[in-house]
Amino acid sequence: MTTILLGKECSTFLETDESVLQRVDVRLVWAESVDAFVPLAREHRPDLCVLDPHVPGFDAFACAREILQVVGASIVVLVIGNSADGERAEAAGVAGILSRPLTRERLVEAIRRYHPMVERENERAEVAIKVDFVCEGAAGLAYTRDLSTDGCFLLLHEPVALGAVLNLAFQLPGPGGREVKVEGTVVRLQPPAVHRGGTAGLAVKFTTITAADRGEIGRFLRSRRRGVA
Predict the structure, then answer these.
(1) Residue 107 — left, alpha, or beta (φ > 0 → left; ψ -120 to 50 → alpha)?
(2) Predicted structure pTM score
(3) Among 68, 108, 157, 229, which is disulfide-ready with 223 (CB 3.0 to 4.6 Å)?
(4) Are 151 and 157 in contact, with CB atoms under 8 Å apart?
(5) Which residues contact 21 (CB under 8 A, 6 or more apart)?
(6) What's the CA gap between 224 and 177, in Å, rounded?
(7) Is 46 helix (H, G, I), strand (E, B) or coil?
């Protein structure tokens, strides 16, 4: 899995449609402020970090140097800019420059270039399913945005930490839909989307799931592809 550290200002173009990112095995870590980049880099040891020098009051090149000192040569630092930033970027140890306007496709292309990622093999379908979950003894409610046999993406209001373990229970849609109970780990967080009323998103990788439940999810996904469900 590839871990990417991004500023919250990048969430606008990523959260609206992550279909491109869903096909690659990534974990996104969001910096809520420019001061959070270095502490988050130290904590999560990301493979790649994207900085925006055009954020007011932010010296992205000084930040890049500090992140490289903290994490070392294992991290690739990119900046969003143009050829005019080349000299400063090179001096700071930045590996490359992402052109403006930044798009999902350009980001994924850059990630594939600077840090190879594994394409998802499992089928995934967009579907809204009510999910009851328990995290550290506290119960909550969420809805899936998409589902696969190895995980799901949830939309919810309750704050959940990266790496948290969730016990999930949900009913597969359709006649005779099976109740599925799985355990999963939060592998990626998405900041709240204003247009969704403050709902946050998180990717959950299933860590404990029975063969029967995995098979039922697979049958459900195939039935959707055929237009049955």
Answers:
(1) alpha
(2) 0.51
(3) 229
(4) no
(5) 14, 28, 104, 108
(6) 13
(7) coil
Asked if residue 39 has a cis previous peptide bond (ω within 30° of 0), the answer is no
Would you state the structure tokens that stand for residue 25, as one six-digit string?
């095995």
pLDDT in tens, 38-72: 999 999 999 889 999 989 999 999 999 999 998 88
Find the angle CA(143)-CA(148)-CA(152) to the nearest 5 degrees: 35
How many other C-beta atoms lie within 10 A of the C-beta of residue 177? 14
DSSP string covering 143-189: EEEEEETTEEEEEESS---TT-EEEEEEEPSSTTPPEEEEEEEEEEE
- Total count of residues recorded for the chain: 229
d(CA 164, CA 221): 26
Q: What is the Cα–Cα distance from 220 to 172, expressed in whole angstroms? A: 7
Confidence class for position 115, pLDDT limits 50, 70, 90? low
Cβ distance 98 to 79 under 8 Å?
Answer: yes
